[in-house]
Design brief:
With 134 residues, this protein is of the alpha+beta class. Helices cover 42% and strands 21% of the residues. It has a 4-stranded antiparallel beta sheet with strand order 2-3-1-4, sandwiched between helices. It is globular, with a radius of gyration of 14 Å.
């Protein structure tokens, strides 16, 4: 199987709770390589682009408020089957569905602040990497 790249973002609650090291450790222990990393503060413009599929939803302002409440850590993660593998490692988006042993299963306590984002396809990984790293 060929190596893939995926985009991973540690969200403001992950940063605020001091979980960066724990999450990075899990990624590396799984065998993935972090090939680039960038701490950044997001604004509404880039969030509208990133979350275009839900930007018209009534809860979107809450997402903007949360995602601009502190810095995020963007990463390019590489390895075999990185997109699917990272999504398994992250756990289900809804915290109540995330099983123990996953990042969200072990650390998330609500769905609106679920610690981590990961690309859901190779195509979206390419788009998100360009969005946040170029």
């Amino acid at each position: 199987m060929a190596s893939e790249k995926t985009y991973i973002m540690l969200k403001p609650d992950c940063i605020k709770r001091g979980l960066i090291g724990e999450v990075i450790s899990r990624i590396e222990k799984k065998g993935y390589k972090i090939t680039d990393v960038k701490m950044m503060c997001l604004d509404e413009k880039i969030l509208r682009e990133h979350y275009a599929h839900i930007a018209d939803k009534p809860f979107f302002p809450e997402i903007v408020s949360y995602m601009t409440s502190g810095p995020v850590l963007g990463m390019i993660v590489e390895g075999e089957n990185a997109v699917k593998g990272m999504r398994i490692l992250m756990g289900a988006t809804k915290f109540e569905d995330a099983v123990a042993g996953t990042i969200r299963g072990d650390y998330a306590f609500c769905t609106s602040e679920n610690l981590i984002h990961g690309s859901d396809s190779i195509e979206n990984a390419e788009i998100e990497i360009k969005r946040f790293f170029c």
